[in-house]
Amino acid sequence: MRLQKYLAHAGIASRRKAEDFIAAGHVRVNGKVVRELGSLVEEGDRVELAGKRVTLPIDHRYLVLHKPAKVMTVASLVPREGGRVVPVGRLDYDTAGVLLLTNDGDLAHLLTHPRYGVEKTYRAVVQGRLQGDDVKRFLAGIRLDDGKSGAAKVRVVRASSASSELDVTIHEGRNRQVRRMFDAADHPVLSLVRLRFGPIALGDLRVGRWREATEKELADLRALQRAAERDGGEESGE
Ligand code: URA
Asked: What does pTM read for this prediction?
């Protein structure tokens, strides 16, 4: 990319103004003043304007995957072009459902931080008939070996003596949390699918397929991020 275009992309100035900076000798590439307008900037070059490093904004990607069960690594299920993305939080090997993947490290950190309690909803099929008392126990929090869980909302979709289907909403993301909660309640999980992660719903995305997050989902994620940054200002030193 030409140097003046690089500076303009970085949001420093218009391309015209950037040309003036270059001609005036204010721009260095890899430590050397460059006055030539056509010079090219390669990946990895260090560009400075008046002694200050100038970087291009990262092109953030936000992909929504319907992770299949019996899959551990999901990288091969999304396209490589556009750079590496990593899952925000995790789903167990046996769990299917909505998984957000991004290269936006700040957002990923906030969304998985227990303190910010992003809501997740799972459709679980569990062994046995879930009773009203069980639902109350979930609301009160279930004792697990790493401490009591937060309040979990349970909505029974269907129940028979053999099995019950229900939606459970939690705010934490402890390892195998939903499975452990139902184990503790003597209703082991038979299958688990995440229907929603914060503002992102699985909808009719087919198993193994991915899509880009929608504008609305991104706006809602950013609102969560802003709220978290406001609350966490002291901790993160902002
Ligand atoms: N709870 C679980 O038990 N497994 C998951 O994958 C997610 C939440």
From this structure: 0.79
